[in-house]
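To: structure subgroup
Subject: Chain for Friday's discussion

All,

I'm putting the inputs and outputs inline so they're searchable in the archive.
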Amino acid sequence: MTTNFKKVLPGDPAHLIAAFELLGLKEIVGGKHEAQVVAFFADAGHDWVKDDETAWCAAFAHSMLGRGGIKGTGSLAARSYLDWGSSTDSPVRGDIVVFKRGNSGWQGHVAFFLAEVGDRVWVLGGNQSNAVSVASYAKSSLLGYRHPPLASVAVPVSAPKPASRALIEAVQKALIAKGYNEVGKPDGLYGSKTRGAILAFEADHALSLTGQPSGDLLEAIMAAEPREVPQDRATGKPENNAALKATNGQLGFGGLLGGGALLGFAEPIVKSIEGGAGLVYRLKSSIEPIVDLWPLGAVVAAGAVIYFALRSRKAVVEDYRTGKLAR
């Protein structure tokens, strides 16, 4: 029943669409801070906040409203939105929702309304489990629904500057060349990955946090030194990397196949395994009347599996240590 809450629907306001584009953005655990979260504070006029640990639900709301041409409160207090816009008992998607939080009279949480279901209110907001997410809260914690002001003023820092596809692609390629691989594929399309990489570059080089591609930004990127790879990354290995896990599995299979053939018990092992190993077994059975080269063939096959797995494993680790794998 909650599936439709997690996507843009026809008629959604611009600020809600902008918020959906950042769905899944998370804080960074540890000493580093998510540049896009830090940028929300700058959008709200609090560029002195340089971390993603300060409560940022109100900063996120202000930043998204600005992208839709609506001026927020600029305050980092969620309850400041209780005096913003106009009160409504019939909220529509994109309206502001303010909830209680904690036991104090000043704490709160602010997000964008999506739907009411039973005794729950579904919202899209920032700093929900340390991320931009869709979540539900009990109506018992509801403080109020607020509809945007009839006359709203856009926040200048939030208004994106138009950029051509060629310029965006050039910025993407320049960022990748400098080690900002979180851009992903350089396709000339401006999205959350490109914005995040730009913000990371701007934060690393003490530039104004805009997240927007431009000719000046491209020049700055091209003139910058390559991104320094942290020591723990330069000497470590990626965790929970699917490619690395796959190569480790191939190494294990190759060792099992080759060792089993040499010791004379590979046949029952291979016979019990489906897929590629099963194919090897069936091939062995078909040529057995001609010549029984099973042990030698198994050793050769195992050697090939191990060789290519080691090469793949080395490439994955090298990409990680040089920063080519997205952070």
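Points worth raising on Friday:
The chain has a mean pLDDT of 77.
The chain has eleven helices and six strands.

D.
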